[in-house]
Amino acid sequence: MARKHDDDVNRLDMAARAGWLYYIAGNTQDEIARKLGVSRQTAQRMVSLSVSEKLIRVRLDHPIGVCLELAEKIKMAYNISHCEVVPSDAESSSTSIGVAEAAAAELERYLVSSHPVIVAMGTGRMLRAIAEQLTPMECPQHKIVTLVGNIAPDGSASLFDVASRIGDRVKAPHYPMPLPVIANTIGERNLLLAQKSLRNVIELASQADVTFVGVGTVGEDAALLRDGFVKPDEMRAVVRAGAVGEITGWAFNAKGELIEGLTNDRVLSVPLDRPAKRKVIGVAMAPPRLTAIRGALKGQLVNGLITNETMAQALLN
């Protein structure tokens, strides 16, 4: 058993070397074969293995003309300061491919700064994908703060506690909120938010140099409903009130206006500014989120967007 484990480790070591030589150092497969003392076919398999095992991540730095044009049109149409559009893969069923990598690259532009930076993070599957794409680094000078609670409805730690994941990955102090996304009652919400430690987190988030948020849907497929933060009748009431999307639990309508009452009276997340006062980048690409993204842009709940070509074209139609 130990021998098999050693063989697997050696195989991954070779794959990592081959991937580095090919993608980073720019060697041909013939050169890799010579340097590693293997056949060209083995070198090719090792390079492929480095990608399939996620030992190396590849990012496209060349700005594709159509995507650049779409990004500029979105900035003008919605009066936002930042937009990045990545190519779409029509055959892919992924809800994060390309966009998560682009958002991770944008986040890293802040993290490589030698000057202290405060980064605020929302939650959800897209932002978790961003965390997984980050390059490990040492950033003790920065602070990673969450906008939303990290406790699931059953009391367990949320799978989508993004700030902690990023803090661990880049070795930066991180500031969680040990709360559910939505309180059971208004009284419970007020009691929880009165805690000094939480007020400090909220104050820190309000000072963030950059904020990354996912843009969620409302309705039967909403993450808030699927993950148990709201009940079906509560979700139906929010939809009847005109909600088209949510950001960190805050439901909003097609104009980007926050819904009055209902679940918004019990949300424990950091309040959303309308319009956003600092740089707030929405990261989303899934087609069902079109109406939600459009509403967030119209209401200036976000003043930046990272998305793909398909969503960008839909937002402009």
SSE topology:
Layout: H1 2-24, H2 29-36, H3 40-52, H4 65-78, E1 82-86, H5 99-111, E2 118-121, H6 125-133, E3 143-146, H7 162-170, E4 174-175, H8 186-193, H9 196-206, E5 210-214, H10 223-226, H11 232-240, E6 243-247, E7 250-253, E8 279-283, H12 290-298, E9 304-308, H13 309-316
Parallel strand pairs: 1-9, 2-3, 2-5, 3-4, 5-8, 8-9
Antiparallel strand pairs: 6-7
Helix pairs in contact: 1-3, 2-3, 4-13, 5-6, 6-7
- CATH class of the largest domain, named Alpha Beta
Please count the helical segments.
13
User: Beta-strand level of the residues, as a percent range?
Assistant: 5-15%
* Contiguous runs where pLDDT drops below 50 for at least 5 residues: none
Roughly how many Å is the radius of gyration?
22 Å
What is the second-level CATH architecture of the largest domain?
3-Layer(aba) Sandwich
Q: What does the overall shape look like?
A: globular
The topology string of helices and strands comes to HHHHEHEHEHEHHEHHEEEHEH
Q: What order do the strands of the largest sheet run in, or round the barrel if closed?
A: 1-9-8-5-2-3-4
Q: Structural class, from helix and strand content?
A: alpha/beta
Number of domains: 2
Distance between the termini: 59 Å
